[in-house]
Structures are given as structure tokens and as C-alpha cells.
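Consider this record:
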Amino acid sequence: MADAVIVDAVRTASGRGKPGGALSGVHPVELLATVLGQLVSRNDLDPALVDDVITGCVSQAGEQSANIGRTAVLSAGFPESVPATTIDRQCGSSQQAAHFAAQGVLAGAYDIVIACGVESMSRVPMGFSTAGQDPNGPSIRARYPEGLASQGIGAELIAARWKFTRDELDAFSARSHELAAAAARAGDFAGEIVPVEITLPDGTTATHLVDETVRPATTFEALSKLRPSFHTEQWAARFPEIGWHITAGNSSPLTDGASAVLIMSAERANELGLRPRARFHSFAVAGDDPLLMLTAPIPATRKVLARAGLTIDDMDAYEVNEAFAPVPLAWARDTGADPARLNPRGGAIALGHALGGSGTRLLTTLVNHLEATGGRYGLQTMCEGGGMANATVIERL
């Protein structure tokens, strides 16, 4: 069976996902088109050779509706012959896009494919796609008569079940900013961030190259002063075990961003004179309790490692999406992972979580970290709405 290899991976720098954020003036189609164009340009690749573009996006409404992947392909100037599709596995959408892309190569259905993702949370806010409607039918309400909680309550329940203190969550969150800021200062993100032209409030233009969500001055002491975000009398009565530790500071911020990964068969890369940087080793998806919602990375990790025939100790780095601080902390405790290898360049608490764009963003950062450190294996996993997770093992080449 042919290898599915990663030839290149790029991302935008993050923008705060609210009005006035650095990328809030950029239409999400143009944001995604930017990374697509940069990806083929960097590799001197004729875009007509791309068999498909698989795109992750969560809020597929408004400016992100009508198959944003295809619209972005055309906006990037790719030939009209290049197709695209847009998928939704919640926060893991573009990680799933990478799975589908690589699996298509392994199956012989693709020679060259791009997996990518985008989310403009400033222009298409969370919840916009449901437009105030209940996405759950009567059978779901019958199965879960007390109702399913939000992800924030799920994070609180995880913190309670694993008995994490507020101090532990805030210390981990401060670490995320410290590591991301240190990586930025060292130039570690220079090879993965591509420029986005933006218009400033005064009408002048600038190039966005620095993650806006990273706060280098963040301290544990400052985080400890923030108020809990999800406490209500209703939830407190239903879940008396919750300690109410989740704040804006130990959660990932609303974020704008896009990312893309160039995937092809090793044979095709050789024919084109392109150097494979890593190969896809193993894949897994898993479901778990939809009330806790964010715990599925644990069974997904066990599943992917079993398929890979490897152990957690074989992994040189792990990218576990920091939707909320308890998620990677519970994952690390349950899997026995080395905390020093967890999100070594910071995670989503600092770098942002642009929903549909996060999966290929994590993959981009993981590939670059393995190359910089000489690591062989990397593991990526992320929690997803509805109680799901993707897990991926890659091998640096």
C-alpha cells in the first residue's frame, strides 16, 4: 500500500474572533483562499493537479455557507476543474478532512489532495447556523430527558470528575501562553504562518503574521482573578458536584483563522520532486458520553495507538486541543502521557481555536515541531461537539 505523505502545511496567524479582531475584516472565503494559494505557491505546484480539496468548517451558514471549500478554491484562482467539499465533525472538522484526504490517497482514489479548514468566529458567530432552532429531535430528548449540557458545563464536569483545582487549570493555561510566546520569540512559527493582507481601522493595509490570541504577559495570578463563565442557579442545582472553575482564561478564545495541508502519495511526490515531510501512520475516531462531551480524546487515543502498534511513550509530542484546560489535563492523566510533550508550543488557550480550522492547524504545528526537534512520532487528538474525537498518528520522514 502506498504511503499518504504530508508535503507541506500552513496556517494563518490567529485573529481574535470578535469585531475589531485582526482578521475580522477578512471574508472567510478569502481567508481560506489565502492559505490555499500560499500552499500551492510555496511548493510550485500546478493547482490543476489537485484531485480534491476537503474542507472543515463548523458554522456553515451566512458567509460560510454553500460549500465554502469550493468557493475558496475558485477565489484562490484554482482551475474550475478542481472540486471541493465541506464537512462538519464539529471542532475536529479539518482533522477529519485530513483523515479523508489521506485515506483517499491510501485507497488509490486520490494522487494529490488538500485538507484544510476555516472559521471566522467574528463574522459567523457560534450558534449562528442553528438560528435559534433546536437541533435535537424528540428521540434525543427522550433518550436524554434532562437535556444535554453545553461544552462549558461539560468542561466543569470533567474538572469535577478528575478533581482538578482552579489553580491547576489556571497554571496550565498560563503555561500555554508562556510556551506559545516563547515559540513565537524563537521564530518557531515562521515556517508555518503565511501572510494575510488586512485593512486597519484607518484605512491603511498591513500584513498579519503574529497570533493575536497569544498574551505574553499572562500570569497565573491574573488568571486566578477571573470569574467563572458558566455558573447559573439552574446548572448548580442539577450538578452540585461542580466547583465552577472554568473561566475565559482557562478556555480557548473565539478565533478567526484558516489552515491547509498538502497530502499526496509518496510516489507522486517523488515524481514532482517534492520532499515528503511526514506520513500518516494511523487513524481513529471515537464517541463518548455526550453530556461530558469532551472526554472522547481518551478512548480515541487508546484506539489509534492500538491500531498503530505503538504506546504513548513512543510519541515524541502530542497535540491535544485545548478547548478548555481540563480536557488535555484529563487526557494526560488518563493516558499516562508525559506532560512535557503535551502541546510543547502552546495550545488553543493561547493560539486560539478557529473551530473548523483547528484540526489542520494542530497538524501543521505538530509537523513543524517534530522536524525542529528530530522527533519521529506525533499524536494529535481533539474533542468534538456531541462527545466525539479524532486521533491521528504521524511519522516524520
Residues 166-185 form the longest helix (20 residues).
